[in-house]
Amino acid sequence: MGKKRKHTETEAAASLKKDETAEERPKRTLLGWKNNDEDDKIQNGSVGFRNKEKVLVTCSRRISFRYRHLMLNLVDLLPHCKKDNKVESKESKGATLNELVELKSCSSCLFFECRKGKDLYLWMAKCPNGPSVKFLVNAVHTMEELKLTGNHLKGSRPILTFSSNFDKKPHFQLLKEMITQIFGTPKDHRKSKPYHDNIFVFSITDDHIWFRNYQISCPQSGGQKIDRGDLEKMTLVEVGPRFCLNPIKIFGGSFGGPTLFENPFYVSPNQIRSLEKKQKAGKYAKKVKAKTRRKMHEMENPLEVDEFADMWKE
């Protein structure tokens, strides 16, 4: 039998094998190959912030087809969103939605709540700590209705533009920050395309937020290229959808909590419908009063008896 090697000889043989082997390959990740230098940066904490925003988009039961199409249009525009089943719009919907957001590993939520089959409310919330905003959605026009000529790449990253009115009041500044986080597609998201070929426009008119989506169109003739910064040749073509957001309340928590802002000019759709019914009822009351006045007038001023009324009856 051969003699056993000493411990020093085994260590020397192992060191020779390590020198002869090739260098270790870098680890492969979703974003490419990771080097050892990047691991050192992660350990030292020198890596920059990475946006991992994910939005849960869902709706309530008994939603109308038009509002459901609007929700699906927004799902197509936001590649970093996730859909879920319909949720019952009860008082406990806040806890249910917070649980769904946690299960889907999202950080924000867009909840379309339809009441009486007519009124659409949009909840925009940061979960689970808030804040959250409740909007009334008006002037809804989906892509199927508009049939506009604009068209852009699905999943491309939009450019968000805001009117200067957003910086004048504190509650609009908060809404601007929430809209930026929810509607802005994160960089290097796996479902997004690395292009900017559309613009989301948020403008304030009469304390309402109006949304428009435009395609950035560049005329190309042959091999001619547009110079960088030459904006005169670029045009905007509307794609859709369109809608208007009327802010009702801003809450400190997610789907509830202390009220940070309440719109003093907000009038609920129920009050508007009741006023319209009262106006219609007023028209009917006027007709009844006119009939009674006519009867009283006829009783007070009777016609004279005609002498020749019964002449031909004999």
Overview of this protein structure:
The longest helix has 32 residues, at 269-300. The strands form two sheets. Strands 3, 4, 5, 6, 7, 8, 9, 10, 11, 12 and 13 form an eleven-stranded mixed β-sheet that branches. This protein has a two-stranded antiparallel sheet with strand order 1-2. It is of the alpha+beta class and 314 residues long. The model has no long low-confidence stretch (mean pLDDT 84). The chain is built from seven helices and 13 strands. It has helices at residues 7-20, 36-44, 65-77, 93-103, 143-146, 170-183, 269-300; strands at residues 27-29, 32-34, 55-59, 81-83, 108-115, 119-126, 132-141, 159-162, 198-205, 208-217, 235-238, 242-253, 256-262. Its main location: nucleus. Residues 53-256 form the Brix domain. It comes from Olea europaea subsp. europaea. Residues 16-27 have a biased composition (Basic and acidic residues).
Keywords:
314 residues; alpha+beta; eleven-stranded mixed beta sheet; two-stranded antiparallel ribbon; 7 helices; 31% helix; 27% strand
> How many individual helices?
7
Name the poorly predicted regions.
none
- What kind of oligomer do you see? single chain
Distance between the termini: 158 Å
Largest sheet: 11 strands, mixed
Number of strands: 13
- How do the SSEs run, as a string of H and E? HEEHEHEHEEEHEHEEEEEH
* Amount of helix: 25-40%
Basic shape: elongated
Give the mean pLDDT: 84
Report the sheet-strand fraction.
25-35%
Q: Radius of gyration over alpha carbons?
A: 34 Å
Structural class: alpha+beta
Family: Belongs to the BRX1 family.
Biased composition (Basic and acidic residues): 16-27
Pfam families: Brix (PF04427)
Main location: nucleus
